[in-house]
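batch_manifest entry 22 of 60
target: NCS1 family nucleobase:cation symporter-1
source organism: Nakamurella flava
requested by: lab member K.T.
priority: normal
notes from requester: please return tokens only, no post-processing; we will run our own comparison against the previous entry in this batch. if the run fails, retry once and flag.
--- input ---
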Amino acid sequence: MSSPSRMALFRRSRMAVVDVVPASQDRISPRLYNADLAPTQRAGRRWNSYNIFTLWANDVHSLGNYAFAIGLFALGLGAWQILLAFLVGAVLLFGLLSLSGFMGEKTGVPFPVMSRIAFGIHGAQIAAVVRGGVAIVWFGVQTYLASVVLRVLLVALFPGLDAMDQNSILGLSSLGWIAFVALWIVQVVIVSFGMEMIRKYEAFAGPVILGSMLAIAVWIFFSAGGSIAFSTDNALTGGEMWREIFVGGALWVAIYGTFVLNFCDFTRNAVGRSAITRGNFWGIPLNMLFFGAIVVVLAGGQFKINGQIIGSPADIVQTIPNTVLLVLACLALLLVTIAVNLMANFVAPIYALTNLFPTKLNFRRAALVSAVIGLVILPWNVYNNPTVIVYFLGGLGAILGPLFGVIMADYWLVRKARVNVPDLYTESPDGEYHFTRGFNPRAIAALIPAAAIAIVIAIVPAFHALAGFSWFIGAGLGLGFALLLADRRRPVSEVSGESIAVPSVH
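--- output ---
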């Protein structure tokens, strides 16, 4: 199909569902279908292996990941132990993300619609709201963390602005508000142009981030005299060391517990399975080992210089004596934080909100609603409140493992990857995913006990020793309960969604 005709089809799909749905598919419900929730056409998909790779090139090198990884150094893990922890996590993630990504490539649907397969056309709201709710909060938090870097940049360029960074308005300084709102606007503008603009931004930012972090690592290495400390003075040994290695690997997977759920939001635009496999291989195992090496050099180099353990690369950037280099380093950190926010914390709530109100919201409107919520919660206060982080976000995050387990069990083990895509958009009682008034009680019954156990393990101090493995425990329980309760007598069919698909370029 030519580009003009694809655009014409897309415009018609925005105005009325019937314009893109053939008469044979007149059962499609406008409460379940719009141009953003519809499956994507195979012809014209543009996400290749490089685009998948740059997702990870950006996300892996986020400030939050550096803070976590450097924390392993502070706990007493040395260079090779940190690299081994990342390798363990990377191998597991490669497998989990490939399974999740293949689902999107085959069906062409976003995560909220994918969830309808297991939970039913209305029960899927449970999974979408949990995933979107966690993402909205972290969108605000990551924007705040990026604003801190921007404040460092602005004060370095204009020292007089430091006076605006000393007051407090609702917990944030005047300069802090300026930096936060500026970055908030930039992200809203980028995402308002849809997934194609996100693809282009990630493709641009990826190599810039990799080059910048390598440059910072080289600078700290030579600042430390050409050598680094490979561990702290309280290096772990024996069984305790091995436990922390595997806990680190498990937590590395848990950090991506959100992304393994909605990776299909991106791979629904992938050109094929091989693109996902290659992109994941270069972007996860290899890129994560590169990330681990950067962490070792940054943490070990700074520790050798003054015996202190940094909190994140931002701490090193502030010490760069050359203003030009400091500005470039700050810009690189801003690029990566925006890239991470777009892919990990903006797309998921957009699709969740669109799924909730498909007749009212499209991609752009849902993006604005998500961004406004991320602003009004005053995320800097959330970030600085350990109770909120541990109990609210920790509790919600613990549910993601069971959700993943239930969805994977249903799709891969029960249905054997067979999906009737058009029936994902019908409210007809005889639809394959209607179940009981649109809810699959068996999937919900599998989720509830698995989620309850995972939450208890994640937040109750008595289970501290298992807390690092809560995502895996929850996912395993969700998968086990789903298999135990699955109704294997229900007919399972496979029908392509091409008849109701829209162009992948939004």
